Amino acid sequence: MPVRDKDKVLLSRGALKLPQGLDLKSVKNWPEYAIWGLALHQEQLPWFTLVEFIQICADKHRRFSSALPNPIFDACPATRAVDPIHEEFPYEIRANMLLRHLVFRDEEIDRIRKDRGPMADDSAMWASWLQKTKEDIAHYIPDGYVDRVRHAIGPEFEKFATAVELLRGAEVDSVRRGRMTSRHLLPLGPAMLFADGELGKDGQLQYDRRFMRRTGELVWLMVNRSAMRDTLGAIIERRFFRSNDVVNRTASRLATEDGTVQDGGRATCRCIGYLPMARMQVYEDLARDLTQVLGMNSLHLSICLEAAMRLLGFHLIRYMLQRAVDVAGEAAHSPFLLDIVGTSSPHIVRRSKEHFLAHRQMPDRAVEQFFADFEASEDWQTLSTKKLPMGAAQELILEKLGYRGGLDDIHVQLSAARQSAVDSALSSIGAILPAYGSRIGLLTARRGVGTWYGPNDQFLEALVLANVTSPMEFHRFLRLLFDRYRIVIGRHEALDPLAYGSVPAPVQDIERNQTRLEERLRMLGLLERKSDAIAFVVNPYTTERANVAA
Fold this sequence. Notes:
It contains 21 helices and eleven strands. By secondary structure, the protein is mostly helical. Among the domains are: 98-194, no CATH class; 468-547, no CATH class. A three-stranded antiparallel sheet has the order 8-11-10. A hairpin with a 5-residue loop joins strand 10 (527-529) and strand 11 (535-537). Helix 9 (229-241) runs parallel beside helix 11 (281-294), helix 12 crosses helix 18 (457-467) and helix 15 (389-401) packs parallel to helix 16. The longest helix is centred in the middle third of the chain and has 30 residues, at 346-375. It is globular. The N and C termini lie far apart (67 Å). Mean pLDDT is 90; it is low at 545-550.
């Protein structure tokens, strides 16, 4: 049963109160949202999360006035010392219906292109395309559309087809062929953004939360609560909303005018989601890494976005684990033991797989402790003194946890609510690790062996881009990965008391793991060896590379 009163639900220790405008009608199992926020969701994969984050930034920029200090982020009320409150604001996303039809559904362009002869008449091709398109989506085609596009990109139909093909090449997560209104482009600029939803009978977009489940809102909130928000806000404004990338310009020329009836209107989110904790180190880490990779001006924004997507997914995994640790009252989660050599070192694979499985189970312990705190509360402890304790327990569980059980013994009711919350958290929050880890390149899976932390080249490159601004000695780089992310690759980090205090596999395997990372980075152009004893990790997209010591 949905939560009825947001002011009475049980919060995590130290958590902010919910924003008043937040709608909880669809929330049926409150504990996971109380711990991790509304909503960290495994079905919203990293690319879509990054797109949603940029959508919010775009609306903030659209509404920006000179009276505000930052065009992307707010002066954060959640982190102020006195009376901290959760951020609360609405935002809108462009429907962009004609452009999404051209990119994701139009088959007529390719048919005309394929059937044209050597003496093809451009005007006839345009007319054929317009006739078919008006049959399909007449309500999205404004008067004079063809004349406007021909004036903007050239009179030849081939140029129009090439422009659409260019945009199709910018689709994110293109292997996942969902409905037209749940497919998205790289967010290279405001013209390339689409609201997620489904089409109503009137042909207008109905905004929903099937694939955009608010995880991008959590990312925006994390960054807004970090010390880097002003710096990152300036970078996002410059790179996304001032540069006018050629692909974004193409999208602008093919789309209808923003805000018109033909454009499909705008989808509205009436209140930003819920992020429980005002401050966490992972917020700072996320904002720092996004600032670094998005701020690399020598790289095209599309390449920066690729690295940003992988880092964003990794930090959301780290956030999930850290919140589980904090709520469960544990010291720390086990390290990310990255296997670089593969199944030729079964000892490392086995230990890494153990960590992966333990990390997947961590939401269980967090939810169990959340319920233990509730059971120890005065509200629950005084139930036995009530005249009708079973009815009072049912009402209290519904009020605090959003769960309605039967009129059983109060302990049976609480056990049922706990099991429901654990099952929900393990199937959704626990599933974030394999869902995100596989998409960002953090995990390796082999039939008959299992799943473990075995990063691909793209994930390793993202770590270098985020952490190396000038040549860095290889062993120092390994230490930095451990200090920032609890990543263990070599022997020295494994011996750290905060990791294992001993080697987690035979010494020769750990040393080979470290050597193999060095080889992979060298083959990627991310490492230079200057002598038998010294190697430097380098970021080839920074100007300081020439300073590598000889």
